[in-house]
Amino acid sequence: MQLSCTDCGSYTSRMDFLECKVCHVPYDEEEHRPRNAPCGHELCTACISALIKDSIFECPKCRQKSKVEVPGDMPVSYGLIDVIRAFSTQSIPMSRETESRASGSAIDEMCTVHSKALTHWCFKCQIWICQECLESHTTIIDCSTTTSDKAMEDMKETNSKNIGMVISLFEENTKYMSYRIGELNDKRKEISDKRRELMEMDEKCGEELKNIGNSLEQGNMHKEKLLEAKKLVDSASSQHSLCERIKVATQRKKILHSWSVKSLGMDTPYGLLKALEEGKTVYAKMVLKDEKRNAKLTQHEEKIHLHTFLKQAVSDNSICMSFDQLQKMISMDASLVFIELSLGGSVKGRVYIRLDKELPNIRKNFIHIVTGQKGPTVAGIKFGAKDSNVIEAGSLPFSELRFTRDSIDKTKAKRGDILGYINNGYLQDLAFFSAAPPKTFDYESDWSVFGHMEAGMDVVLECYDELRSGVTVSDSGLVLEK
């Protein structure tokens, strides 16, 4: 870019980064104000305005298209504005002769009037003059001059300062741009994380809406059944037998319990556990030999405990679910059971026993006796003998339940094992082995190791020391881990 001197008509040359790369017009602070396009290229405001078509700007350098309504949507390049202001407030004489001298070459041009070497520089006219021109030039035109060597030194110093200032401005601008890039990347990541979170919430909401829709559908079905039951109750009169009235009431109660289980979301393991954690009273019910039996469900350490089925009444505000429904929801093929021991009528704690999975027949029958699914249960049995670090309960009332032995029954016990004495297919004795390790004990073939205690050895040892006070099984059941 070349600019002409208004006084003497000589030409000066400045760095081309101060002009628009499209129209080649020098940048200013008005119509040709420099702006940064989204792609990073710099153009003047006038060119940007001309290149916006239907709110789309296409960069003439890289052809990147961006959505831009008006030039004001693009940020101003304040670094270039500062450089333009610096050049406008300082004299930076850069004629072709000065450029030649600054680059180290001699000035080849001579004074056109006197044909002599150009030895002086005029600050006002911004031109080189010879020695003879100097006398009349300063007198007639009233200019300020200096020798060529002094002018060159001044020009070098001025240009060096200006270049240093431009470099400093660009470094500051680069730092700001780097900071801004980092800031925008952080914001972009934050928006991306928020978008992913919203998508997950949308998915969960959709799932919940689906579950609510299913519950409403089930509720409407139950409502229809309740209306039918209500009609039967309303139409009941003295001519109906007591048996019919009981049948209607039983049907109504069954429908209410079924509806409660589904409406509270207890038809899934997670929903059942959540209901128990919230303090809901829940029972599993079954009919055994024409007798109704109920087993309480509780939770401990985020696991569901199924207690023994007993002939017991439940309160009206309790929630009952059928044992078949519970079995469909949670597998009963578990191996962790609990036996609660009482000493002298006072509960001392629970013993948690992991049954041996290599003994499927023994494990299956033992689960039956801790839950009472088949009738007989360990609840109420007494441990009345101790020998060789063993507390033992004999003469067990399990004559109705036949135990099938496994071919790999273990007969060598170690500390913490629970053993059973099986005679002719019947479990007659149950024992806890509490000897200190590494002691083991070999029993005759009628004894089998059923499993090992995972917790509760302290309870067994306390009962062993105070056996004569009376040790009784106050409760038992199955831990539903799945």
From TrEMBL:
Query: Which Pfam families does the record associate with it?
Result: zf-B_box, zf-C3HC4
**Which Gene3D superfamilies does its entry note?**
Classic Zinc Finger, Zinc/RING finger domain, C3HC4 (zinc finger)
Q: Which residues cross the membrane?
A: none
Q: Which UniProt keywords apply?
A: Metal-binding, Zinc, Zinc-finger
Superkingdom of this protein's organism: Eukaryota
Please give the SMART domains that the UniProt record associates with this protein: RING
Q: Name one GO molecular function term.
A: zinc ion binding
Question: Has keyword Hydrolase?
Answer: no
Q: The RING-type domain covers which part of the protein?
A: 20-63
InterPro entries per record: E3_ubiquitin-ligase_RING, Znf_B-box, Znf_C3HC4_RING-type, Znf_RING, Znf_RING/FYVE/PHD, Znf_RING_CS
What SUPFAM superfamilies does its record include?
B-box zinc-binding domain, RING/U-box
Q: What is this protein called?
A: RING-type domain-containing protein
